[in-house]
Amino acid sequence: METLTLKEILPYLPYSLDVFITKDKIYGELSGIDSDRSIIQIGNNEWFKVHTKDIQPMLKKIKVIEQDDDFWKEFYAEFGGGYKNLTSFKNEWLSSFQNNPPTSFSYDIMQMLFKYHYDVFSLIEKKLAIEKPFVSNLEEGLFYAPYVLMEHTEESLKKHESFMDEYYKKHELCPNCGHKGHTTTLIGYPLIVGEEENYQDKNICVCTNCGDRHITHDRISKEEFLKKQN
Ligand SMILES: [Zn+2]
């Protein structure tokens, strides 16, 4: 079986890459590499050292690059000299990205792809990386996925938001001690319209009161906590 190698993950190191630790089924951020071990930070102050073959980076497929406004803004600022405007720059580069493998570009272009967590080495296809949905906006620990938003009507957007409000009320407190304060990883788990009952926010939380570690989905509501008390 193919495994992830250092050369496939090292270029992402400066750019806060989210990774999944396959053995422990938890998420964290790549914060260092020490020979063949990756150092993964979980929450605010917890670090893991795991063999690089036991992690899967969270990467975006090149096909979502068209929607990635933050990428284009920075890419244009860096390399847009000589182009009339962002639109003509984007049109030309977009077709370049769509028609050539990412590894065919010069290193400074590839670096931009690493920075924005694009799958330069086709790791998703090889099942060595997890596909990260494209996200652009962070709001109170929740990422909205534009590919979902674009198909939204005003009404479905309202439904989406009220579902999320409800969801976070149901998962407000530490399941161990009932405390609200916690640190959390910030990975986007987009809500699929029509599959709301399957939604799970699997970000790792650490309770600031008792230190219990759990995923957001396992947090409980005030009612559930009171029931537990009795
Ligand atoms: Zn707690």
How does this structure look, described?
This protein has helices spanning 6-9, 69-79, 86-99, 107-115, 146-149, 154-170, 222-229, and strands spanning 18-21, 26-34, 37-42, 46-51, 55-59, 130-131, 137-139, 142-144, 182-184, 204-207, 213-215. It folds into three domains: 6-60, SH3 type barrels; 65-114, no CATH class; 137-229, no CATH class. The longest helix has 17 residues, at 154-170. The chain contains seven helices and eleven strands. With 230 residues, it is α+β, with helices and mostly antiparallel strands. The radius of gyration is 20 Å and the shape is globular. The protein starts with 5 loop residues before the first helix and ends with a helix. The protein is 29% helix and 21% strand. The model is unreliable at 136-150 (pLDDT under 50). The strands form three sheets. It has a six-stranded mixed sheet with strand order 4-3-2-1-5-6, with no helix packed on it. The protein binds zinc ion.
